[in-house]
Amino acid sequence: MEGLMKGKRGLVMGVANDHSIAWGIAKKLAEQGAELAFSYQGEAFGRRVKPLADQVGAELVVSCDVEDSASVAATFKTLEDAWGGLDFIVHAIGFSDKNELKGLYADTSRENFIRTMVISCYSFTEVARHAAALMKDGGSMVTLTYAGSVRVMPNYNVMGVAKAGLEASVRYLANDYGPRGIRVNGISAGPVRTLAGAGISDARHMFGYQQRNSPLRRNITLDEVGNSALYLLSDLSSGVTGEIHYVDSGYHIVSMPTLEALKE
Ligand code: NAD
């Protein structure tokens, strides 16, 4: 299938480098004819994002720190001035203090709880509100989540709580914007080796464990997340909203490790 995204314009938020999930998604969207804009957090990331944006012919590359509402508003003003409207957004943003992505969840500080929630959960709601204002003919929004939202994963801690809030936000936003033809979905990705992923203590153990215990017996690739996002952002999924779509080699359906895996 070709040209699935032809004539569609969208913002990709959360590319830090070419290992980022957002980059895996951006490449698939560009291959299918989407016109892309990128936002990045701070100039150090900007220097990495700009050459990637060039690779997919994106001209709009803007700085956006989601901790700052004015920065989010300015990003969407730039998009409005340049494009007038918007068809989709990809929100692939998460952060928590890595000192609290280990040990007990119970030890999470108030300060880091709030910061994690603002960046990893609330930012999607704020971004969605700005994006929806520009989606005059309907649209599609996708955010990234992880199964630590519904089950306890060692060290994922406050990120799991933030992802639970994010997934609930997907459902509320889907209901808010559904009457306007705007769809809102989440992708729950299996572990991927990225900058954010490396912040979780014992990430290597999580990676190996899910590899051994998922039905497909392997971890997922950036291309696989990209393809699923392409489905959710294109008209192929026109009847789908409020969904959390797992791209995790089926890991979330398994309740017990195999005997072989336990022996490893
Ligand atoms: P990544 O480090 O490549 O991307 C995280 C992005 O969040 C970075 O681009 C970073 O700049 C951005 N970010 C953090 N704080 C920000 C702020 N204040 N303002 C603007 N941007 C900010 O890592 P990734 O793994 O590609 O993460 C993307 C999303 O995927 C995250 O929501 C993450 O939780 C989720 N996810 C990751 C995995 C995994 O195993 N890597 C699995 C499931 C879900």
TrEMBL record:
Its domain of life reads Bacteria
Keywords from UniProt, A to Z, are: Fatty acid biosynthesis, Fatty acid metabolism, Lipid biosynthesis, Lipid metabolism, NAD, Oxidoreductase
Question: Is the keyword Oxidoreductase assigned to this protein?
Answer: yes
Q: State which pathway it belongs to.
A: Lipid metabolism; fatty acid biosynthesis
Per UniProt, what is one GO molecular function of this protein?
Answer: enoyl-[acyl-carrier-protein] reductase (NADH) activity
Kindly report, in one word, the top-level EC class recorded for this enzyme: oxidoreductase
The protein's Enzyme Commission number:
1.3.1.9
Q: Which reaction does it catalyse?
A: a 2,3-saturated acyl-[ACP] + NAD(+) = a (2E)-enoyl-[ACP] + NADH + H(+)
Q: Which family does it belong to?
A: Belongs to the short-chain dehydrogenases/reductases (SDR) family. FabI subfamily.
- What is the protein name given in its UniProt record? Enoyl-[acyl-carrier-protein] reductase [NADH]
Q: Which organism is it from?
A: Aquamicrobium soli
Q: What is the lineage of its organism?
A: Bacteria, Pseudomonadati, Pseudomonadota, Alphaproteobacteria, Hyphomicrobiales
